[in-house]
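Data availability (excerpt). The following record was deposited with the supplementary files.
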Amino acid sequence: MTAPDPRWFRRFHPGPHTGVTLVCLPHAGGSASFFHPVSAALAGSVDVVAVQYPGRQDRHGEPQVSSVAALAEAVAGQVAALGPQPVALFGHSMGALVGYETAILLERAGHPLTHLFASGRRAPSRGRTEAVHRLTDDGLIAHVRQLDADTGVADALEDPDVRAMALPALRADYRAVETYPVTPGTPLRCPITVFTGRDDPVVSAAEAAAWDGHTLGGFACLTYPGGHFFVATHRAAVLAEIRRRLALVPTALG
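Predicted structure:
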């Protein structure tokens, strides 16, 4: 079996693991480092692997992937190369869409997942007309600041060097998300757990709950205080839920 391409995965806290590998997929403009705190919190109990998309950080010189489908195809190939151990996916915002499409491809290829955790994203069957990727640079940054008011990460974009490096990937990611075709999609066999922010301006309660139509397995939708990046401000609660659900996997597989 071919090993995963090392450009795609980051293991921030490697160690012996006998349970589930949790593959984490970042939001638009995000990178693998967003999940460093997730890896630290779950170290020793869950093998956390963060995906590094092309076009950012140490992959800055590579072209961005142009669509969610193309990104999912690449990620699915890397996940399949991990081997036969149980795998779950955890995607935030754009990462939730990539996770869903990746899960479809893996199930078709005979690599079923144990769980899909979809955070901060409406169901694939729910669409809105959006054109954030067509905004000016200042408009794009203002949009990110509106979504990221709780964590302050958008402040880094005020630095001209950071802006020049980050905006091309951010814009490309928004283009991929905003051209993603709204579809009822293929129901997954694995369970889906959805995390959503009560005040998220881009995901309503009904849009989050509509993920139920995308699985034949179990479904849960959990709401937390906060906006789009509630997953950072309420990280401990979200990870406690992930840890609890993944702890059930060995029993389910046995």
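Summary of structural features: Residues 7 and 58 are 9 Å apart (CA to CA).
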